[in-house]
Amino acid sequence: MDRPLVDADYVFITDDDVICIGQVLAMYSKTGGANFKNEWVSSTTNISAVTKIAVQVFEYSHGCHSTSKPTKTAILSVHQFAHLPSSNVLTLLLSKPRNINDTGLDLSENDIALFRRLDTNDGRAAIKEA
Q1: What is the model's pLDDT at position 30?
Q2: Mean pLDDT, residues 107-111
Q3: Distance, CA of 93 to CA of 83 (rounded, Å)
Q4: 40: domain range?
Q5: DSSP code of residue 68
Q6: What is the distance between the alpha carbons of residues 38 and 85, in angstroms, rounded to a whole number?
Q7: How far is it, in rounded angstroms, from Cα 27 to Cα 64?
Q8: What is the pLDDT of residue 97?
Q9: Mean pLDDT calculated for residue range 69-91
Q10: Disulfide-capable partner of 28 in 19, 52, 56, 128 (CB 3.0 to 4.6 Å)?
Q11: Distance (Å, rounded) from C-alpha 17 to C-alpha 44?
């Protein structure tokens, strides 16, 4: 990771074996105490130090657009949120999404190209093996 991962960053994630975009809402890391409690952390340079990450899920729709109301929650017309292990975080987006609004967001051309590489059969197989 070239820079720390911080709250409000956008990342590629896997959620039920689907490649999605997640906006980081919170990250948690275990403390070194006797009871090993999870504590909120504002940033990390090592994703494996994070035990759980809370994200809003955006699902690829078409072109460079990803929707804020994924298939799983579209019938209710609500946003989807997930509390994932850090192993479901694939990488930071290369640049901040554009046109962020209630319907979703638009990815840069470089991020769309990265998404397409991750979302191939070979890409998903490599992610499962990792």
Answers
A1: 84
A2: 97
A3: 19
A4: 5-129
A5: S
A6: 12
A7: 27
A8: 97
A9: 93
A10: 52
A11: 25
